[in-house]
Amino acid sequence: MSTPDNNPADTPSKTPSKTPSNTPGNAPDAARTAVGTATGDTPWATGEEIIRFQDVTKRYGRQVVLDDLCFSVYAGKHVTLIGPSGSGKTTILRLLMTLIKADEGSIRVEGDYLTHEERNGKLVPAGERHIREVRKKIGMVFQQFNLFPNMTVMRNLTEAPVRVLGLSRDEAEQRARELLEMVDLTEMSAKYPSQLSGGQQQRVAIARALAMRPRILLLDEVTSALDPELVAGVLDLLRDIAHHTDITMLTVTHEMNFARDISDCVMMFDHGKILEAATPEKLFNDPEHTRTREFLNAVL
Amino acid sequence: MNWDWEVVEEFLPRFWDGVLVTCQALLGGTLIAFTLGLVWALAQRSNLVWVRWPVNAVTEFIRNTPLLVQLFFLFYVVPEWGPSMSPLATGVIGLGIHYSTYTAEVYRAGIDGVPRGQWEAATALNLSTAVTWRSVILPQAIRRVVPALGNYVVAMLKDSPMIAIIGALDMLGEARFFSAETFQYVEPITLVGIAFIVIAYPASLLIRALERRLATY
Ligand SMILES: Nc1ncnc2c1ncn2[C@@H]1O[C@H](COP(=O)(O)OP(=O)(O)OP(=O)(O)O)[C@@H](O)[C@H]1O
Ligand SMILES: [Mg+2]
């Protein structure tokens, strides 16, 4: 693997001093940071490495939002990000969803660079085609739902499968009906999002993401915009998905009980760095850092 | 004031000719203004500087010069090296182009008003740029701007008598010629004034109906 000779920014940088044995895609090594910052056992760091952040830095102006971040997520595992406001949790998900670009470092999904591709043995900024190919594997659910208000629920669920995956309308609607059944909204298919409650909208948004059959699901505080009485329904649905599918989940949440239920690994963030990563039992009951303890005391 | 029905009767044939011209100018001009304005608005958001910049310059220029000058230009200057067209066709195109620079601004505001989350959801679903525009952004943007677009239809109606200057006689043009020949002013001008209201009203009703039809969500 050659390093690009130009373009220092947004380049998969290989800094040997920081990554002593960095064979790309090598799972045991990739677990390095997650395990490096990990405390206790690391049962989440087994199997196929599906996401890998390597030395990722993101800045807004002078503010360093993510600071040389390294971590890996393994296929089918559920990783939850917690941490104080502004610590960079959303930024991680937005980077993965290609809504923003990293300033330095590389992100790989199933071994493929997210925003770079290899051409003639060189890494170059990826074309739209490559990005779209990698992006197919990732779905995202937003805090504010972001359903398309001009489409019925049914069309919200079928538009992308038809336009992007090339499903026939019948196939897409069949798939949508199954998903609506799963999220318990069978009667709502002809309604518009504005006619639904927040909780129902978010369940549709989850179904919409799942309709694309992603391998990875990103969830960014998906219950924060909901009235308290609607939160449980959405969390129950997500628990269901976590326990009954093999989808990899990367979740940002302030619902600590939920995090405890579904997570294989909880990562505590602070100032753009992983402070510690551990199983929920370990992290919630016996955190290593006082900073984590303070944070948990504040939110629990 | 003396109202003479015989004058009205005498004027009527030419009045109807004028009404026809006014309606054609309004419909044709609206069609052009609505579509071309959208083209401008999209071009102004292009990633390509050499598309964005000239379009910005041209629309800014057209918006800030008088319609009258543009009509003269289209009718007398363009045929020197381009196609020559009938007065009515020239008038329709002139009105359409002039107002397209206003509707472009309206569309642009509508597009800017679509929340960023909509773009992000489209990206997260991997929709192509074309599909994102067609299925997500434009339907929401246009729905928001129909009332503002409607205002420009009425404004265009009020500007339509200008095309008489290049010989496309609208209602007012016909009235003035008639008056110049017969020295009868009251009836033709009054009739034309009423006609403007009679045309403007259904036009605004039409826009409102369209607004309601788009308000499905
Ligand atoms: N578009 C932007 N421009 C400038 N600064 C930004 C932008 N987006 C995020 N930031 C900054 O980056 C930092 C990290 O933001 P991020 O949204 O990732 O935090 P977070 O951990 O998700 O916090 P929260 O729990 O409040 O959602 C914040 O300080 C924020 O102000
Ligand atoms: Mg956030």
TrEMBL record, chain A:
<keyword id="KW-0813">Transport</keyword>
<feature type="compositionally biased region" description="Polar residues">
    <location>
        <begin position="1"/>
        <end position="25"/>
    </location>
</feature>
<dbReference type="InterPro" id="IPR014343">
    <property type="entry name" value="Ectoine_EhuA"/>
</dbReference>
<dbReference type="Pfam" id="PF00005">
    <property type="entry name" value="ABC_tran"/>
</dbReference>
<dbReference type="InterPro" id="IPR030679">
    <property type="entry name" value="ABC_ATPase_HisP-typ"/>
</dbReference>
<keyword id="KW-0472">Membrane</keyword>
<dbReference type="InterPro" id="IPR003439">
    <property type="entry name" value="ABC_transporter-like_ATP-bd"/>
</dbReference>
<dbReference type="InterPro" id="IPR003593">
    <property type="entry name" value="AAA+_ATPase"/>
</dbReference>
<keyword id="KW-0547">Nucleotide-binding</keyword>
<keyword id="KW-0029">Amino-acid transport</keyword>
<keyword id="KW-1003">Cell membrane</keyword>
<dbReference type="GO" id="GO:0005886">
    <property type="term" value="C:plasma membrane"/>
</dbReference>
<dbReference type="GO" id="GO:0016887">
    <property type="term" value="F:ATP hydrolysis activity"/>
</dbReference>
<dbReference type="GO" id="GO:0015424">
    <property type="term" value="F:ABC-type amino acid transporter activity"/>
</dbReference>
<dbReference type="InterPro" id="IPR017871">
    <property type="entry name" value="ABC_transporter-like_CS"/>
</dbReference>
<protein>
    <submittedName>
        <fullName>Polar amino acid transport system ATP-binding protein</fullName>
    </submittedName>
</protein>
<dbReference type="InterPro" id="IPR050086">
    <property type="entry name" value="MetN_ABC_transporter-like"/>
</dbReference>
<feature type="domain" description="ABC transporter">
    <location>
        <begin position="51"/>
        <end position="296"/>
    </location>
</feature>
<feature type="region of interest" description="Disordered">
    <location>
        <begin position="1"/>
        <end position="41"/>
    </location>
</feature>
<comment type="similarity">
    <text>Belongs to the ABC transporter superfamily.</text>
</comment>
<keyword id="KW-0067">ATP-binding</keyword>
<dbReference type="InterPro" id="IPR027417">
    <property type="entry name" value="P-loop_NTPase"/>
</dbReference>
From TrEMBL, chain B:
<dbReference type="GO" id="GO:0022857">
    <property type="term" value="F:transmembrane transporter activity"/>
</dbReference>
<keyword id="KW-0812">Transmembrane</keyword>
<keyword id="KW-0472">Membrane</keyword>
<keyword id="KW-0813">Transport</keyword>
<protein>
    <submittedName>
        <fullName>Polar amino acid transport system permease protein</fullName>
    </submittedName>
</protein>
<feature type="transmembrane region" description="Helical">
    <location>
        <begin position="189"/>
        <end position="210"/>
    </location>
</feature>
<dbReference type="GO" id="GO:0006865">
    <property type="term" value="P:amino acid transport"/>
</dbReference>
<keyword id="KW-1003">Cell membrane</keyword>
<dbReference type="InterPro" id="IPR035906">
    <property type="entry name" value="MetI-like_sf"/>
</dbReference>
<feature type="domain" description="ABC transmembrane type-1">
    <location>
        <begin position="19"/>
        <end position="207"/>
    </location>
</feature>
<dbReference type="InterPro" id="IPR043429">
    <property type="entry name" value="ArtM/GltK/GlnP/TcyL/YhdX-like"/>
</dbReference>
<dbReference type="InterPro" id="IPR000515">
    <property type="entry name" value="MetI-like"/>
</dbReference>
<keyword id="KW-0029">Amino-acid transport</keyword>
<comment type="similarity">
    <text>Belongs to the binding-protein-dependent transport system permease family.</text>
</comment>
<keyword id="KW-1133">Transmembrane helix</keyword>
<dbReference type="Pfam" id="PF00528">
    <property type="entry name" value="BPD_transp_1"/>
</dbReference>
<feature type="transmembrane region" description="Helical">
    <location>
        <begin position="19"/>
        <end position="43"/>
    </location>
</feature>
<dbReference type="InterPro" id="IPR014341">
    <property type="entry name" value="Ectoine_EhuD"/>
</dbReference>
<feature type="transmembrane region" description="Helical">
    <location>
        <begin position="149"/>
        <end position="169"/>
    </location>
</feature>
<dbReference type="InterPro" id="IPR010065">
    <property type="entry name" value="AA_ABC_transptr_permease_3TM"/>
</dbReference>
<dbReference type="GO" id="GO:0043190">
    <property type="term" value="C:ATP-binding cassette (ABC) transporter complex"/>
</dbReference>
